[in-house]
Description:
This protein is mostly helical. The chain has helices at 2-16, 39-44, 51-67, 74-97, 104-117, 129-154. The N and C termini lie far apart (62 Å). The relative contact order is 0.12.
Amino acid sequence: MCRSVRWLTLLMILAACRETRPDSGGAGAPDVATRAGGAELEDSQPGIEFEARRLIPGVRAQISEIESPEGATEGNITAFRNGVSRLANAMEADLNRVGAGDIGSFSGLSDSVLREIGGGASDPPDLSPEKARQAASQVERLIGIYEEQMRKAVH
């Protein structure tokens, strides 16, 4: 009996601590003012949330880290590899959502970058700092293509 009371109490506490969203005045409308970057995209596409837009600042921060000589550590390079892999998948999904998924330049560059930096998180981090810096410039190009295609899709 004591155990069930503990579980019930724990469940009630968890339910009470759930994050609640402040009423933004819109009945179910997304709060685009608090989102990072590209508010015009979310605003013009109600109900669609673009995942890559919120990942780009993190990948750019990782690029800044690996571009500095003391920041190109094994941990930062591994974080960069994982972040780029996740970002590339998110950008491809976003482009498909807006109907711009058949872009040869994006797919070709994305595949090239992912091959160069290595596979998934389980692969050993054998990416040298020099190759990581080269890949970083390709990632910036990839982000540029993504942003350009998303702008075109909106207008």
